[in-house]
Amino acid sequence: xxxxxxxxxxxxxxxxxLTMTFAVIVSVALSLALAGGSxxxxxxxxxxxxxxxxxVQVSIYLCNKNDASSDDPNCAKGAVTRQQxxxxxxxxxxxxxxxxxxxxxxxxxxxxxxxxxxxxxxAASLTPDQxxxxxxxxxxxxxxxxxLQTAFSGRQGVQExxxxxxxxxxxxxxxxGMNIAALCVMALMLVVALLLIVNTVRVSAxxxxxxxxxxxxxxxxxxYIQMPFILEAAIAGLIGAGFACVLxxxxxxxxxxxxxxxxxxxxxxxxxDAVAGVMPLILVVxxxxxxxxxxxxxxxxxxx
Length: 304
What we know:
This protein is α+β, with helices and mostly antiparallel strands. Helix content is 68%, strand content 8%. The longest helix has 43 residues, at 165-207. The chain is elongated and about 100 Å long.
């Protein structure tokens, strides 16, 4: 009997405040969809970093004969000597952080440049002797770049030590910035959702003040009086969380699978397992957040 009464009160409350309940559902859906999207974006950035940082190399560019006229003191004596190259390669292999060392000659660098920049007007004027030979170093841990920087920068015969990760950092910084912006919008939407939940509960409590007054007179407990209001908010939040999950699934299917993966083939995108891992958290937050907000609101407006 008590359960039937509570359910009937929930139905009455949802019907009376249909417009505000709809607003709560929409705001919760949007805020939680942004929250889930932010979590997925963070995982996407981590996936991209792991994928690309594992493939990038540290390049140790060696001096050529044209560098003798430059202001670089390491190349003041001209091109790197055979002995210097042997010493550099031997020292590289001694380092624990180094996984593999590749040597790229000036001719190989020239052919690669011609292939990659064949449409550039500079390609026609370059000659192989103007290109720099280099050692391409694959590290066991790409974050240990500073070890090579310290060991070989300023060494005779070495023109520059360059970490290819620097070319990717602006992209990751942009993605992180977008993620932070999404988190800020999500926080704003959560505040809006909480305010709507509080107002909805207040209006519902005010519209049923006669019923709650009668329940007080007959000795109903505070929890029993509050239960319909809390469940109304929880149901609205759960429906909003369900819509948020639908939005994430649609975003994964249409935005990532059927658009981005077709346009950008060089990026490894997150899979369905990542989306499935976020959904339970969204549903739990969608259920608990309105219920907790309603509980604390009702403590003031339905004192027994």
